[in-house]
Amino acid sequence: MAYRAIAIDGPAASGKSTVARRLAEQLGLTMVNSGAMYRAVTWEVLRREMDPGDTPEVLKLLRQVRWGCVIRDGATIMSVDGVEPAMSELKSDAVNASVSLIARIPEVRTLLVEKQREFLELGDLVMEGRDIGTVVFPSTPFKFYITASEEVRAARRAAEGAADAVSERDKQDSERKVAPLKVADDAVVIDTSELSIEQVLEQVKSKLNELGW
Ligand code: DC
């Protein structure tokens, strides 16, 4: 039997990670955070003091390094030549500021999309990101686009204590040539600005029911 994927896309700080994680817990599914994978490549570029805008150098690094990716205790863990950066390192201000430069490189996306698709061999899953419904699993009927107003998203990030220029990052992620952030034609769009997590989860689950999950 082929396994099924629930795709959850949306801009930064829209609430999609929380929704994806809670949904996976409630339905007993594997949860994959694809953003952690782009963050791990960025972390390694910065650790080596390379310029994230220097694409030829990033491509060399991509070939030199052994990139691994596993799901452990519900977390998506990338390893870089066997070293696993901690989530706190992946969420640093420096990584926030550079990750969109790395995510726009087509070869980086090809490498990571291949790894993302391999996870479907493990079982039914929830995957969150920017291009899961449009590029990674375009044929899944279970697609959600989670969004929120710019003010609400900036406030959520600030409450977490992160100095993350969410609107600038979203602009870069939406305007890039390859796999930009956009709503899949057949995605269910949910604006979380004035909803609680519970309300969002209820909407997602009722839609999944309707779609025959
Ligand atoms: O979900 P996140 O904020 O942790 O993602 C970090 C960055 O990774 C995001 O700004 C763009 C990139 N990304 C992407 O290009 N495609 C994905 N499927 C997931 C993340």
Characterization of the model:
The chain is an alpha/beta fold and 213 residues long. It has a single domain, classed as 3-Layer(aba) Sandwich (Rossmann fold), CATH 3.40.50. Helices cover 48% and strands 16% of the residues. It is built from 10 helices and 7 strands. The chain has helices at residues 16-27, 34-47, 55-64, 87-90, 93-103, 106-118, 132-136, 150-159, 166-175, 197-210; strands at residues 5-9, 30-33, 67-72, 75-80, 125-129, 143-147, 188-191. The strands form 2 sheets. Strands 2-5-1-6-7 form a 5-stranded parallel β-sheet. Strands 3-4 form a two-stranded antiparallel sheet. It binds 2'-deoxycytidine-5'-monophosphate (DC). Residues 12, 34-35, 38-39, 99-100, 103, 129-132, 169, 173 line the site of 2'-deoxycytidine-5'-monophosphate.
How does the SSE layout of this entry go?
Blueprint lengths: L4 E5 L6 H12 L2 E4 H14 L7 H10 L2 E6 L2 E6 L6 H4 L2 H11 L2 H13 L6 E5 L2 H5 L6 E5 L2 H10 L6 H10 L12 E4 L5 H14 L3
Parallel strand pairs: 1-5, 1-6, 2-5, 6-7
Antiparallel strand pairs: 3-4
Helix pairs in contact: 1-10, 2-5, 2-6
The structure holds 2'-deoxycytidine-5'-monophosphate.
Distinctive features:
213 residues, Rossmann fold, globular, binds 2'-deoxycytidine-5'-monophosphate
Largest beta sheet: strand ordering = 2-5-1-6-7
Number of DSSP strands? 7
User: What is the CATH architecture annotation?
Assistant: 3-Layer(aba) Sandwich
Number of domains: 1
Q: What would you call the shape?
A: globular
**Rounded Rg:** 16 Å
Uncertain stretches of 5 or more adjacent residues: none
Q: Short description, anyone?
A:
The protein has 213 residues and is α/β, with parallel strands linked by helices.
